[in-house]
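Quick one, T. Sequence first:
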Amino acid sequence: MKTIGLIGGMSWESTVTYYRLINESVNEKLGGLHSAKILLYSVDFAEIAASQAKGDWAQGASILSGAAVNLEKAGADFILICTNTMHKVAPEVQKHIGIPLIHLADATADALISAGIDKVALLGTIYTMTENFYKERLIARGISVLIPGETDAALVNRVIYDELCRGVISAESRAQYQRIIEQLQAAGARGVILGCTEIGMLIKQTDSVLPVFDTTQIHAHRAAMEAIADR
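Structure tokens:
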């Protein structure tokens, strides 16, 4: 079994879900007492969030690159960055290591293509929704991306940082997300990407009129299958 290197803590709430889902997937495939071989480097999210707010992506890249190097030295066979937003610096992180980095947007594109969906709504942090680093990888695979308008995008972002990253689950916020998903469905979306690893805490398939593509679940499952691919 390969050893999975996780760069987590962004936030730790979703990293817990990564750990559980990876182990569940490995055990489902191998049975018995099998679980995943995992190395976790958990960063201080306050430092990352501060670098995001200042637009200092070089600082964030430095932190994550250092984490990736340490994971490789510790024996990781491949790396996951356990957050959508910080995939903005994934190319820089990859430059510092000699092992693969499994890109979350690529894994999500694979899932969308397998489901036959070529027009999708994207919910995430303001960076993930409005910048190109994430969307361009979907568009390159033939997938059109819809995002909320400016006011709703700000609401989605606020709920992530002020509530979900702090473990707060609000029925009112769920209703707002549902409203936004319905609007994006009306605009032509055929699925919705939960493009922040915390959104799955708030929105399940039963909460959405569109098929849900939870990036945490997708990324974790891909890691588990890669880890046991040669068994």
